[in-house]
Amino acid sequence: MRLESLYQEIILDHYRHPHHKGLREPFDAEVRHVNPVCGDEVTLRVVLKDSDAGPVVADVSYDALGCSISQAATSVLADLVIGRPVSEGMRISDEFLALMQSKGEGEPDEEVLGDAVAFAGVSKYPARIKCALLAWMAWKDATTQAMGDREPG
Amino acid sequence: MTFDVTRVRKDFPILERTVRGGQPLAYLDSANTSQKPRQVLDAMAEFFERHNANIHRATHELGEEATEAYEGARIKVAGFIGASDETEVVFTKNVSEAINLVAYAMGNATATGQRGRFSLGPGDEIVITEMEHHSNIVPWQLLCQRTGATLRWFGVTPDGRLDLSRIGELIGERTKMVALAHQSNVLGTINPVRMIADRAHAAGALVLVDAAQSVPQMPVDVAELGADFLGFTGHKMCGPTGIGVLWGRRDLLAEMPPFLGGGEMIETVFIDSSTFAPPPHKFEAGTMPIAQAVGLGAAVDYLTEVGRDAVAAHDRDLTAHALEALTSIGGLRILGPAEPVDRGAAISFELGGVHPHDVAQVLDERGVAVRAGHHCAWPLHRAMGVQASTRASFYLYNTHDEVDALAAGLREAQRFFGVTPGGA
Fold first, then answer.
1. Which domain holds residue B266?
2. Are residues A40 and B388, on separate chains, in Cβ contact within 8 Å?
3. ipTM of the complex in this document
4. Annotated catalytic residue within B95, B180, B291, B376
5. Of B278, B304, B330, which residue is a domain's last?
6. Is B374 in the A-facing interface, judged by CB distances under 8 Å?
7. Across the interface, which of B357, B365, B378 has its CB nearest the CB of A3?
8. CA-based R_g, chain A, Å
9. What are the φ/ψ torsions at residue B12 (nearest 5 degrees)?
10. Alpha helices in B177-221 (DSSP H)
């Protein structure tokens, strides 16, 4: 049944048992993003730390209200980017965006996307793509702000 | 002619198609937009195939026919809502434009220093309600920002009715305009417009009624309602998109300054100033959606022939059946009146533990089309203490079987998302 191809077990698992949920202190940047279509919202905080490979995502914490797709996407995002260099997180984010725009034709790379490959089916439902992207857009926004604050001068 | 839903359904070609891999379509989203009967589609096709020309300015036979078709639609609409005559009927593109027309005209009256009931400033008040669609909220917010007037509103009771306990404080000598929905697009609640209009008029205020949800479903008479302005839209009443109506009292339309300037709305134009056509043309700048107006006229004919009382009775019957079917589902909470009294055929609800988007997705997979979200009524959802809801809405072509398919789909959503139905 098509419903199962949209709501893969991985998505439902993340929805029922979200990872890294809750707002934590301290943080470098906080954003609140809203999906004006349905009112779903996410408040998301990022903490960055320095490393030899450039800034690394030390933590992503969040409070989110929304459907199973948006909740699961937030949980998967936190799993994927925490502990990685910002540049790598941005690459995953771009990959995920491309998958969402693929209209069901995308061939997701599990090496890059991990659990996020489960969202491939979402790209066939135009009304739900924004649900999957809400947290990713918030993370990009928060991270860009945090990076801006770190620049000297 | 007695009402026969099977026969009515045959008029709507789209109801024959299947969706999502062969599922029959149960279209329960008519409060969003209604489906269109063949009579309306044919009237528009015939206009394009036989009579297409611009109106009021083409000096040829087609132009005469097109003008007659367009103005004929205006006459039909006037009769449909009990207008004194067709000059009280202004065509717009939708209700949002109808409301904006009045709000911007009031802003223009203010800016040009026109004295009278249309200009306003600091100390003046506009009263709306918490259950309005965004289209009856935002234009007034913008007008208040432009003029310094104050926006006030009726609250909503927990059972989804207007809270009238503060009416004496809300409507008074500072009130210039009271704008409210006849029927809530979310809760289905039918508001006591006449009583509120009488209070507003006693205070010297104008009354604008958003009748987007009521005109499609029940007989509406502007004089009985006590409205000064009333807006509704074609696409929710079996007509096409792109055509709406602002009805206004003749003396008010004559006094009210124009909103959009351009072709056809003028009397004379000099390079530095113009005078304007009498209503309704004063408010119809540029080439109008002519075929859409013809389609709306055909929709008026269609609903009149089926019988507006019969449509209203059928909608009431479906609503009563749906309220019964939905309240039997454990964990389901209806927003708004749970009794089929003073309410229309839109029912919004929460299904405990399943987000409205997910509910709608499961239903869609089974061919049941509903709407999920805040239905352009975000303040109302906040007032009801919910983030979003699922809405099923019914119209003349819906059946008990489709309502039952909705209920079965909701139980499936609970099963799929592993929600144990609580309560009764």
1. 42-304
2. yes
3. 0.89
4. B376
5. B304
6. yes
7. B365
8. 15
9. -110, 95
10. 193-202
**pTM, to two decimals:** 0.94
Domain total of chain B: 2
- Give buried/exposed letters for A95-111 (b at 16+ CB in 10 A, else e): bbbebbeeeeebebeee
Of A1, A3, A38, the CB nearest to B372: A38
Of B20, B357, B418, the CB nearest to A67: B357
CA B63 from centre of chain: 31
B255 shares its domain with B315: no
Q: Are B297 and B73 in contact (CB under 8 A)?
A: yes
Angle at CA of residue B81, ends B75 and B83, nearest 5° = 65
What whole-number distance in Å separates Cα of residue B293 and Cα of residue B71? Answer: 9
Strand-pairing partners, residue B232, are B245
Task: Report the residue of A11, A34, A40, A69 to disrupt the B interface, i.e. the one with the largest count of B CBs within 10 Å.
Answer: A40
CA-nearest residue of chain B to A34?
A: B387
**Do residue B170 and residue B221 come from a single domain?**
yes
C-beta separation of B129 from B177 below 8 A: no
Q: How confident is the prediction for chain A on average, in pLDDT? A: 93
Q: Which residues of A touch B (CB under 8 A)?
A: 1-3, 6-7, 12, 16, 37-41, 65-69, 125, 127-128, 131
A·B CB contacts under 8 A: 50
b/e sequence B196-208, b meaning 16+ C-beta within 10 Å: bbebbeebebbbb
Of B334, B35, B31, the residue nearest B184 (C-alpha): B31
A2-147: in CATH 3.90.1010.10: yes
Statement to judge: residues B323 and B274 lie in one domain: no
Where residue B329 sits, what CATH number does that domain have? 3.90.1150.10
Burial class (CB in 10 A: 0-12, 13-18, 19+), B219: middle
* Paired tokens of B395: 């119209």
The radius of gyration computed from the CA coordinates of chain B, to the nearest angstrom, equals 22
Predicted confidence pLDDT, tens digits, chain A (153 residues)? 588 889 999 999 999 999 999 999 999 999 999 988 878 899 999 999 999 889 999 999 999 999 999 999 999 999 999 999 999 999 999 999 999 999 988 889 999 999 999 999 999 999 899 999 999 999 999 999 999 987 664
Phi, psi of A26, deg, nearest 5: -80, 175
- Identify whether B238 is a catalytic site residue: no
The per-residue DSSP string of B85-105 comes to: SGGGEEEESSHHHHHHHHHHH
Alpha helix positions (H), B35-94: 38-46, 61-81
pLDDT tens sequence across B234-249: 999 999 999 999 999 9
Same domain, B212 and B100: yes
Characterize the bridge pairing of strands B125-129 and B175-181: parallel
CA-based torsion, B291, B296, B301, B306: positive or negative: positive
Task: Report residue B96 as tokens.
Answer: 């949002």
The model's pLDDT over B17-42, given as tens digits with 9 standing for 90+, comes to 999 999 999 999 999 999 999 999 99
